[in-house]
Amino acid sequence: MNYLENVLRPEGAGNSYSRRLPALECSSPNWLPLLNLPIIGTSAASSKPANRVNIDRLILTHSPAENDIDQLIQEVSQVRWATRAVFERSRCLQALIRPLLSHTTWNEVINVARRGRQVLPTELREASILRLDIADFTELLNNHPLDEVLVKLNAYLDRLTQLVYRHHGDVDKFLGDGFLAVFADADDAVQAGCAIQQTVADFNRSQAVPGGLLFPARIGIDTGQVITTNLGSPDRQERTVIGMPANLAERLQAQATPGRVWLSQATFERLRDQSNCRCLGPIQVKGQPKPIFVYEKQDKEIL
Predict the structure, then answer these.
(1) What is the 3-state secondary structure (H, E, C) of 201-246?
(2) What local confidence, expressed as pLDDT, does residue 200 receive?
């Protein structure tokens, strides 16, 4: 049975998606071996026609007349390699698609798929929206090679998105040279904004050489009711948040001083820690019918 076990055991059996198979028992001349090869998310064995594959298990059956162990080994080996090929394609597809979706959307897709559904739910909730953009980015593009800008920009955005995750937020989407991030808690959003501006200051200091690329950031944050939904046509959709907080956060960052974090009145009122916040007074913000109160978070560590 050792030879049979070696044939049936997938390569890399120590991996999370494979496990050692039990030895095949052939004590009776009229045996009916049933081999279950677990792949991912195994469930109870079901009776399927011979050599058919389902997403949970591979089940091979032989009638009593087909008691040739060598033939069985050959068939199992063929299915094993077919299974590995399907798994590798799935893993490759996941590696390609996963970075294109936000963490929140990816988890929603997985949960909905596990329930056998095909539609992501629409959700109304309160959230703090952080909008970040780079000041004078168009001028930067005009003065530097595009490939050089893209390399630096990706490194820059990678640092900033890690700070979003560290403060319990998620990057909903990248918007050219900036992004829109979503937080369940206003304090997390403001702390993330301050940490981002500190990191941006450090990044720009490291680039402060003749011909260096500087990415001064503006940040605006608003808090309120948003809807998480699918937006677009039936054959091309984007999972995103829609609501006034997303619009106002965009307006605030557009007028904010580079290196600073501007907050709406609603965000300021929800902060447990309102220290180092100063009111800029009523400011006329584009899209608002009248001036609104705006606050600036002045973190003492940001230069």
Answers:
(1) HHHHHHCCCCCCCCCCEEEEEEEEEEEEEEEEECCEEEEEEECHHH
(2) 94
Q: Does 114 fall in a domain?
A: no
Whole-number pLDDT of residue 157: 94
Q: Residue 22: its pLDDT value, please?
A: 36
Instruction: Tell me which residue range forms the domain holding 283.
Output: 121-297
Please give the pLDDT value at position 29. 36
Task: Tell me how far apart the alpha carbons of residues 4 and 197 are, in angstroms, rounded to a whole number.
Answer: 61
Q: Residues 16, 67: one domain?
A: yes
Question: What local confidence, expressed as pLDDT, does residue 126 receive?
Answer: 97
Give every residue of the chain whose pLDDT is below 70, as ranges.
Answer: 1-69, 299-303
Cα separation, 62 vs 33, in Å, equals: 7
CA–CA distance from 207 to each of 45, 56, 218 (Å)?
60, 52, 18
In this structure, what are the phi and psi dihedrals at residue 79, rounded to the nearest 5 degrees? -65, -40
Q: What is the pLDDT of residues 121-162, one digit of tens each?
A: 899 999 999 999 999 898 888 888 999 899 999 999 999 999
Q: Is 144 exposed, middle or buried (0-12, 13-18, 19+ CB in 10 A)?
A: middle
- Give helix then strand counts, H and E, for the chain: 8, 11
Nearest to 51 by CA among 19, 78, 30: 78
CATH number where 136 lies: 3.30.70.1230
Hunting for tokens 């501007």 — which residue is that? 262
CB-count burial class (<10 Å; 0-12, 13-18, 19+) for 222:
buried
SS3 267: helix
